[in-house]
Amino acid sequence: GGWHSGEKCLNRDLITETRTYHTCDKNVANSCYSTSSASKLTADINNSQTTFNVNEVSSFYSCSETEVKLASNLDTSGTSVVVSDNSSINFGDYIRFNSEVMKVINVGSSGSIEVIRSQLNSVASAHNTDDIQSLCEISDYIIINEEVMQLTAIGDGNELTVIRQALPTNY
């Protein structure tokens, strides 16, 4: 493996190559390694670094609509959210209303949830009753050059936290 800076990679043989990121779901198969992402490191990383920044994080998660709707309006600063049904929402889930992603930090009764706003590099915005909620899935693994890393968190801005050498690299 080597380390990316933009699209360039300095491999272990000290030869510069052009490479891109790859993303992968938890059931690793050869076919999943062929999917490229537009995300790139913003600076070189060393072989023990577990937190680093990328130029964008949207390729590391996807969201799909659910039947759940916002039960009351939500302003730009509120963290208590009431939805039509919170039975499928769990602590730690990422949910999205319109373009804002929120992290669920508590699931209460009667459709109430507590959230941290503006997650995954999104911006807090006002939301209206009956806005549809999406549930977001974060990629479990990423590959930089040939090293498989387990993605454990997407932090403020475009910061990723990983577990290094999470899976064998013989793909």
Summarize the structure.
The chain has 171 residues and is an all-beta fold. It is 0% helix and 46% strand. The strands form 3 sheets. Strands 5-4-13-14-15-6 form a 6-stranded antiparallel sheet, with no helix packed on it. A 6-stranded antiparallel sheet has the order 7-12-9-10-11-8, with no helix packed on it. Strands 1-2-3 form a 3-stranded antiparallel sheet, with no helix packed on it.
Write structural notes for this entry:
It is built from no helices and 15 strands. The protein is 0% helix and 46% strand. The strands form three sheets. It has a six-stranded antiparallel beta sheet, with no helix packed on it. It has a six-stranded antiparallel beta sheet with strand order 7-12-9-10-11-8, with no helix packed on it. The two termini are 13 Å apart.
